[in-house]
Write a structure and sequence with these properties.
The chain has 10 helices and 8 strands. The chain is of the alpha+beta class. 34% of the residues are buried.
Length: 262
Amino acid sequence: MQEIIIATFVVGVVGLLIGAALVAAGKKFYVEADEREAAVRASLPGNNCGGCGYAGCDAVAAAIVNGEAEITVCPVCSSQAVEEIGAIMGVDAGETLRRVALVKCAGTCDKTSPKCSYTGIRDCRAAVLSGLSLWECDYGCLGFGSCVEACAFDAIRVKDGVAFADPEKCTGCGRCAAVCPKQLIELVPADQKLAVRCSNRDRGPEVKKVCSAGCLGCRICEKQCEHGAILVENNLARIDGALCTGCGTCMEKCPVHVISGI
C-alpha cells in the first residue's frame, strides 16, 4: 500500500512540474495574435483557390497583415471587399481592376483537323508529355479540359474542341492559366471589349494550312484601327484593352474573323 501511495505522490509531483514548465514556456513564447488578421480573413471570399499564390485565405490574410502582400493580392475579392481590407489596414484601396480569363484560340473542330489519334489520359498536360502533335495547329487548344478541372468556379467549358471562359462566372484567379501547357489562357481586364483569339505565330500561308480561324498577321486590323489599339508582332495581332473602344471595325475587317468580343 505504501508503494502505491509513494508512486501516486511521485506521479503527482512530476505532473505539477510538467504543468508548471508548460505554463512558463507558454508565457515565454506567447505570440500575441493580431486582431487585424482575423478581420482581414473575414473580408476574404474564403474560396481557398490559390489564385493569390498563397496556400489559402488564412495564409494570405497573414501575409497582408505582415506587409508581405498587397491588399489587392486576392484576385477573387470584390471592390467592396478590397475597400474593407484597406480600411482594416489603414491604406487607400484605390481602384481595383477585375480580370477574367481569355482562351486565345478559336480553332474549333470545324476550323482545324486532328493530326493523329490520341488514346492516352484525357488531360492536356499528359497529352503534351506524350510528345505527340495532336492537331494540325501546334499552337491550338488541345481540348481535354485541364483548365476545366482546375476551375473552382465552373467558369470554363470545352466546346467543339476548344475551351471557352465565361466572363460572368470567372473570378480571375488564374488557376486555369497556370495549368494550361500551351499557355493559351491570359487574364485580361473584364471591361476589355475585343480580343484576338489566336496564338499561332507562324506566317500567314502556314497558318492557313492548319486552321481557317488563325490570325494571318496581315495587319488589316492594325491599319483599320483609328485608336492605335492593335499591334501585330511576330505575325500575331494583339489588342490593347486600355486603348480599344470596342468600335468593332477590326472585327468586321478581319478576313478570318479571329477577333471577337470577350
